[in-house]
Amino acid sequence: MIPAAAAPGLWPQVAPIILLVCSNVFMTLAWYGHLKFKSVPLVTVVLVSWGIAFVEYCFAVPANRIGSAVYSPAELKTIQEVITLIVFAGFTAVYFKEPLRARALASSRSAPCSCFAAKLDPREGPTKRDYVEVGPPDGLLTARRPRIEARRL
User: Fold this and answer.
1) Structural domain of residue 34, as residue ranges?
2) Residues near 33 by Cβ (< 8 Å), separated by ≥ 6?
3) Is the predicted pLDDT of residue 98 greater than 60, yes or no?
4) How far is 46 from 66, CA to CA, in rounded Å?
5) What is the number of structural domains in the chain?
6) What's the number of CA atoms in the CB half-sphere (13 Å) around residue 18?
7) What CA–CA distance (Å, rounded) separates 86 from 124?
8) Domain-embedded: residue 153
9) pTM
């Protein structure tokens, strides 16, 4: 199997996003889907929600594992938060037939903005993943130079 960082094209950047969308659909269903079934005993609802959450983990864990090859943990969390807001807005509109309200949309914009702002901390210097090792294969005279690549999200 080819590591995600070595895979051709945009797949290493896109695969985690697709998996996180799937993950969020299942988690939103697990957390809020039972609200239509208030007559079902709570114990049953908890057990069914755990089963749905297991499926969610089957998407989330690979998304983060694959995504860590091209995204930092902060970037993965930011992507996940934005996806969560989009999925939840769609879920409430479709599943609960609730209209999207301007106030809810405006308040939900603060989370992605704060996540993005956290990534722009000017005090944060380059990290280990911003450099690559260069030099002969035997390891002698190995130097570090800045990694040149397209800017990540």
Assistant:
1) 4-146
2) 49, 52, 95
3) yes
4) 30
5) 1
6) 7
7) 29
8) no
9) 0.66
